């Protein structure tokens, strides 16, 4: 059975106010056959390959196709024809291939499980769908089991096993308690990928009887619950108390305290493991460790870095997550668990395989009779996929022959096609992990051109912005497109226009003179057609008088100007903002035509004010800051705040209102402008005073609105222009009756914090708003646009509720209603929220790059489907980087640049590119959660540009009539250098320039000798490099040929070097000892120069000391220097005023300790030692003579024959007697070993030989005695550590693999 997949392309043309979105994909626009023309079927919609359905609902298997004539549809099931007419439960939608299997009227989903394939056919060919594997979802119940309580000692590790039932698809696991609240997790307690709950170490607070594992099956929207698990943690204190209660006072008792333990891995087990993952999937690796203190997990990749921007750490870094894995992510990943007592690690060997993926998918081919064409199908994978072709759904080997068709591996070549060659070809690429299929038709048509863009379409753009004029077309053969300006204008050509393959004309920088009528002409051998469009260029909107920074005194008046200039045909709208928000709803703010005026300025008016001008095509803005300061005091009259009101009285008490009256205090020379009335709720917020109302200063009574269930007392504050008085004394208290709430919580929102939840938040009611005891909230939600009932919970004392298990980023209707013991508040209004965002799933497709010039390129892409964004679309990011310079062929460190394009923009400009270079780029979609996967890297190259100036130009070896020029190639060649251009001209004493001479030099030269020049003449040189694009910037230099007289000696006959015009001393070098230094130098110039040496302490401001050099020697010895001191030195020549060498710095050696007299070399000591030796020799002779006279005794012989081995030193190697030495330097390096007479240490005699340190016999010592080299004993190499790499286990064959 063949498994297939349709490769579909989408077209998108969008416009914006300020710029036009780029054009369609070049190839697709040419192949989009109008539906009124004959064409083979194209499948436009089909169900997924792995189609899991809800067994309680009807099964809908989609198959939609287009074609002319409209195609007919047929199905196979499990490889055989599926006759839907014989099954009353199965119907096919009219004018469609979509199957509807009626399950809700008695059918069973299990009976229709199988592999389905759709065929769409008309007279020009047949297209086939993927193999659609239909399986009903399953949500089995938990098996009954008896769970024993877990009794654990404090500090020990614990694993609570979930073991959920096997469902389809697998369930989502989470742990909760009896109150349906998520169990808190941390570095110490966390859930593993298998659903088990791991405790690195248990604490007394872990004791509870309601650890419940839940399995949620999304397809059937059911949740299964495991029986509660009980955990009892015995703390050391309670255990000691229990022991003490059962022992007498004389017994010794006491449990051991909690002992800390080094980490041990709970999962995975062992030191190594393997994992196979497929390319493009998410790689999840997990390490959970036990230990006390709680271990911390760290992840590394052996021999490499974790991929940036694709690596995430979850579950308190216990899970390593790498998205969009590729073959480059294969390798060994090590997790390290560490605490204060030690560490443990585990290595996971990851192998990334790959299901087939497209390199080049076949695309529809529209040919005219007699034309040639090719279909190319190239895919990659791991292992390499096999490629097979079908024609109209039949293997091409057994399909009807077509003489115009030739199959060559992954390519079908068509030659001299005829109308009967029309067909649909299928390319199948498959390996053991999956397959790909693309349907691509060959449609042989003979059609004259037609233009699909509406006639006289009007385009409006702002000056200096890009303009794109569309000319969508079709024809067979493919028409040629030409553009003209005006009805009878000449054909448009030149660099100011860009012509796209889909017919679009782009004017990168539109000017006023570009306005007018443009004619697009499409022609092929069957005819010609044209279409006109109109382009209008509008003046940009400008703010010619911007608002300015203002400082205003309190209670003053201020005005900001915003005078604009705009195109007369555009209608501007002006909006004012304060601190990037709407202006306060206050009558003091007056918005005029060209200004904003604020009356009676107060401190709260301080801030930034922005004027925004919008038209239908552009928008501009300008801002200014307002600073409010206090008004200066007037010394003539003393103004003060008023005295507080007094004599407060409550009258007219009702359930919802009361009358308050008071007497005002002294206004202190400033009239009272208002009275502020505040209240205290002694029942809910005693001691807190809140604003009630404000009345004019002429009023001394007020009717106050009251809320139920509040114990009121009131106070009054008088206000004048100076400020507020002290509050009055509080009034008597008044308690209102209880009632149901009058209002619901404000600011209700529904925003997900995770991909599978919805967080509902609200502002809780104040105590006085509760209207009665028992304040609670009824939180309700339901999925929007889905016929679901409201789900509600009632909560208290909280301001948020988390709904778990939601689909990712779907809209929800949310409402929160207040209630108390007396009833509910009015029905609340509904707000729309969204469940949590997740990273986008799909990379932008059809990424195209158009190189505009050597430093600018334009990139465009197809927008991703909104469903795949899985969040609020924020825009697209373009990553681009230089791969190499095409002129140098050398790679460098990759520095990726990122450009962000906001909103649903599908194109952008890449500025600042380097000429003649190879670049790569990819595009990613961005939502509130982050970035999606990257599109495949797109390679593009910039053309050549003009080079930079040569890196240097040096002129040397001047003679009477020649100069030698040396130069360096440009730092930035920006292309292939073709040549250099040298221009030069003489300069006379009055700085007048002579005739200019130009020389062209090959690009591979780096020096040139100019001959036949005038002696003693100054020349000015101009030098630049060229590429095929043109000449680069030039570098200039001046030089002088030498004189033949005027006091400069002519070179001697046979001399090989001309003396320079100006003498110089160079290469000053020093060789320093403790108290002296040798100074040497090189001299070029007139002979018989007298030199001197100047020196001084480096960094000192003292005058230089001067030493005269005898004769014309080029060296000198400085004596009497201070050891360990840094000196500066320079060399000069007498008679040449101010002519000296550059400075050199040296340092004398450190002072050495005075040498001690070697006593062994002194004459008196040698004589003494000779006398002692002679005396010893005489004594030995005397002893020998006396011994011989004594003779030998039998006992002595027996002693000599049977010496006691315990009192004699033995050699370890051969058992012979060792020798002892009195001298320290003769002590053996090892017991029983001897020191050779030459004082060297033989390797075989010492296990601690110096040869065993460092690299062989080449080990060295530094001057301070430290050893140079790495310690390395001379031992046989030990076998390499670690496990041998082993092959990954054979992966399970992917569903729908090619067979």
From TrEMBL:
Stretch list, region Disordered: 725-745, 1194-1299
Ranges of residues in domain Ig-like: 41-129, 136-230, 263-351, 356-443, 449-536, 540-627
Superkingdom classification of source: Eukaryota
Biased segments, Polar residues type: 725-741, 1283-1299
Localization per record: Cell membrane
Positions with biased composition (Basic and acidic residues): 1194-1214, 1236-1245
InterPro entries: FN3_dom, FN3_sf, Ig-like_dom, Ig-like_dom_sf, Ig-like_fold, Ig_I-set, Ig_sub, Ig_sub2
Fibronectin type-III domain: residues covered: 644-739, 744-838, 843-945, 949-1045, 1059-1151
Pfam families according to UniProt: Bravo_FIGEY, fn3, I-set, Ig_3
PANTHER family (UniProt xref): CTX-RELATED TYPE I TRANSMEMBRANE PROTEIN, NEURAL CELL ADHESION MOLECULE L1-LIKE PROTEIN
Name of the protein: Neuronal cell adhesion molecule
Source organism per UniProt: Zonotrichia albicollis
Gene name per UniProt: NRCAM
């Amino acid at each position: 059975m063949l498994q297939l997949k349709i490769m579909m392309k989408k077209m998108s043309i969008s416009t914006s106010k300020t710029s036009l979105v780029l054009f369609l994909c070049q190839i697709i626009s040419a192949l989009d056959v109008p539906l009124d023309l004959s064409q083979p079927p194209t499948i436009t919609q089909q169900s997924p390959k792995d189609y899991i359905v809800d067994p309680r609902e009807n099964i809908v298997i989609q198959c939609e196709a287009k074609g002319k004539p409209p195609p007919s549809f047929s199905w196979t099931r499990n490889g055989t024809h599926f006759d839907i007419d014989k099954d009353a439960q199965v119907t096919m939608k009219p004018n469609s291939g979509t199957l509807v299997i009626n399950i809700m009227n008695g059918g069973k989903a299990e009976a229709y499980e199988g592999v389905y394939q759709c065929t769409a056919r008309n007279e020009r060919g047949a297209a086939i769908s993927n193999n659609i594997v239909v399986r009903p979802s399953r949500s089995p119940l938990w098996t009954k089991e008896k769970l024993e309580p877990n009794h654990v000692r404090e500090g020990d590790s614990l694993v609570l096993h979930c073991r959920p039932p096997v469902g389809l698809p697998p369930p989502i696991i989470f742990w909760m308690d009896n109150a349906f609240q998520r169990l808190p997790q941390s570095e110490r307690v966390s859930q593993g990928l298998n659903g088990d709950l791991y405790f690195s170490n248990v604490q007394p607070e872990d004791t509870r009887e309601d650890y419940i594992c839940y399995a949620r099956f999304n397809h059937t929207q059911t949740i299964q619950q495991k029986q509660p698990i009980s955990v009892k943690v015995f703390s050391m204190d309670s255990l000691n108390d229990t022991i003490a209660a059962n022992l007498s006072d004389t017994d010794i008792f006491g449990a051991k305290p909690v002992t800390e333990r080094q980490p041990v891995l709970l999962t995975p087990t062992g030191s190594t493991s393997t994992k196979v993952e497929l390319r493009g999937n998410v790689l999840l690796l997990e390490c959970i460790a036990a230990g006390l203190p709680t271990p911390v997990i760290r992840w590394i990749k052996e021999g490499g870095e974790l991929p940036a921007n694709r690596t995430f750490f979850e579950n308190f870094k216990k899970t390593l997550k790498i998205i969009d894995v590729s073959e480059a992510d294969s390798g060994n990943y090590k997790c390290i668990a560490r605490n204060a007592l030690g560490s443990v690690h585990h290595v996971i060997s990851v192998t990334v395989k790959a299901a087939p993926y497209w390199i080049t998918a076949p695309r529809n081919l529209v040919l005219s009779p007699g034309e040639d064409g090719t279909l190319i199908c190239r895919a990659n994978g791991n292992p390499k996929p096999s490629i097979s072709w079908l024609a109209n759904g039949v293997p091409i080997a057994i399909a009807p022959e077509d003489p115009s068709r030739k199959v060559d591996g992954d390519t079908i070549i068509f030659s001299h096609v005829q109308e009967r060659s029309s067909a649909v070809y299928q390319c199948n690429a498959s390996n053991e992990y999956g397959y790909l299929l693309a349907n691509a038709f060959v449609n042989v048509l003979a059609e004259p051109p037609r233009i699909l863009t509406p006639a006289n379409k009007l385009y409006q753009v702002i000056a200096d912005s890009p303009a794109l004029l569309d000319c969508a077309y079709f024809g067979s053969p493919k028409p040629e497109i030409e553009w003209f300006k005006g009805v009878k204008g000449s054909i448009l050509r030149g660099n100011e226009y860009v012509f796209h393959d889909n017919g679009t004309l782009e004017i990168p920088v539109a000017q006023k003179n570009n306005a007018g009528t443009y004619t697009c002409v499409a022609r092929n051998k069957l005819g010609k057609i044209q279409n006109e469009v109109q382009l209008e260029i509008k003046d940009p909107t400008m703010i010619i008088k911007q608002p300015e920074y203002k400082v205003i005194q309190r209670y003053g008046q201020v005005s900001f100007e915003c005078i604009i200039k705009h195109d007369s045909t555009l209608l501007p709208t002006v909006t004012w903002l304060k601190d990037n928000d709407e202006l306060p709803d206050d009558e003091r703010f007056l918005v005029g035509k060209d200004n904003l005026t604020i009356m009676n300025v107060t401190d709260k008016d301080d801030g930034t004010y922005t004027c925004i001008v919008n038209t239908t095509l552009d928008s501009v803005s300008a801002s200014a800051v307002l600073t409010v300061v206090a008004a200066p005091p007037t010394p003539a009259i003393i103004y003060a705040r008023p005295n507080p009101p007094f004599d407060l009285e409550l009258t007219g008490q009702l359930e919802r209102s009361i009358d308050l009256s008071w007497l005002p205090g002294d206004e202190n020379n400033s009239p009272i402008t208002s009275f502020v009335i505040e209240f205290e709720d002694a029942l809910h917020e005693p001691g807190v005073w809140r604003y009630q109302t404000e009345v004019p200063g002429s009023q001394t009574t007020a009717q106050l609105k009251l809320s139920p269930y509040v114990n009121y007392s009131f106070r009054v504050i008088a206000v004048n222009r100076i400020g507020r008085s002290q509050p009055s004394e509080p009034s008597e208290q008044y308690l209102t009756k209880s009632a149901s709430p009058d209002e619901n919580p404000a600011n209700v929102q529904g925003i997900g914090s995770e991909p599978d939840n919805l967080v509902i938040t609200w502002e809780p009611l104040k105590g006085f708003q509760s209207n009665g005891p028992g304040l609670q909230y009824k939180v309700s939600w339901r999925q929007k646009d889905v016929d679901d009932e409201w789900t509600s919970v009632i909560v208290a004392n909280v301001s948020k509720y988390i709904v778990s298990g939601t689909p990712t980023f779907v809209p929800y209707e949310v409402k929160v209603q207040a209630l108390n013991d007396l009833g509910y508040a009015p029905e609340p209004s509904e707000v729309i929220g969204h469940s949590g965002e997740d990273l986008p799933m799909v990379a932008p497709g059809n990424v195209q790059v158009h190189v505009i010039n050597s430093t600018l390129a334009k990139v465009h892409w197809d927008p991703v489907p909104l469903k795949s964004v899985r969040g609020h679309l924020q825009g697209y990011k373009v990553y681009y980087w230089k791969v190499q310079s095409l002129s140098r062929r050398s790679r460098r460190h990759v520095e990726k640049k990122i450009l962000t394009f906001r909103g649903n923009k599908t194109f952008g400009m890449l500025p600042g590119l380097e000429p003649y270079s190879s670049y790569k780029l990819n595009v990613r979609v961005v939502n509130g959660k982050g970035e999606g996967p990257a599109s495949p890297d797109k390679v593009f190259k910039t053309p050549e540009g003009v080079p930079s100036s040569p890196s240097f130009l040096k002129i040397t070896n001047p003679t009477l009539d020649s100069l030698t020029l040396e130069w360096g190639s440009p730092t930035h060649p920006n292309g292939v250098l073709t040549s250099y251009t040298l221009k030069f001209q003489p300069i006379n004493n009055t700085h007048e320039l002579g005739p200019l001479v130009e020389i062209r030099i090959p690009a591979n030269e780096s020096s040139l000798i100019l001959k036949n020049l005038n002696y003693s003449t100054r020349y000015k040189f101009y030098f630049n490099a060229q590429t095929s694009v043109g000449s680069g910037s030039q570098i200039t230099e001046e030089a002088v040929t030498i004189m033949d007289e005027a006091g400069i000696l002519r070179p001697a006959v046979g001399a090989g070097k001309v003396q320079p015009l100006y003498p110089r001393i160079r290469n000053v070098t020093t060789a320093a000892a403790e108290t002296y230094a040798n100074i040497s130098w090189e001299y070029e110039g007139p002979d018989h120069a007298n030199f001197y040496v100047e020196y001084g302490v480096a960094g000192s401001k003292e005058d230089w000391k001067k030493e005269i050099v005898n004769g014309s020697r080029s060296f000198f010895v400085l004596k009497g220097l201070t050891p360990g001191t840094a000196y500066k030195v320079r060399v000069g020549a007498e008679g040449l005023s101010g002519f000296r060498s550059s400075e050199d710095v040296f340092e004398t050696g450190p002072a050495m300790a005075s040498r001690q007299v070697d006593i062994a070399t002194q004459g008196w000591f040698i004589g003494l030692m000779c006398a002692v030796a002679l005396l010893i020799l005489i004594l030995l002779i005397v002893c020998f003579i006396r011994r011989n006279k004594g003779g030998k005794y039998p006992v002595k012989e027996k002693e000599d024959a049977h010496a006691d081995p315990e009192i004699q030193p033995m050699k370890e190697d051969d058992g012979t007697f060792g020798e002892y030495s009195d001298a320290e330097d003769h002590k053996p390096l090892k017991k029983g070993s001897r020191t050779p007479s030459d004082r060297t240490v033989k390797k075989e005699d010492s296990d601690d030989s110096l040869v065993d340190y460092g690299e062989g016999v080449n080990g060295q010592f530094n001057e301070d005695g430290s050893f140079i080299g790495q310690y390395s004993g001379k031992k046989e190499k030990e076998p390499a550590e670690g496990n041998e790499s082993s092959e990954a286990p054979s992966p399970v064959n992917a569903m729908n693999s090619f067979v």
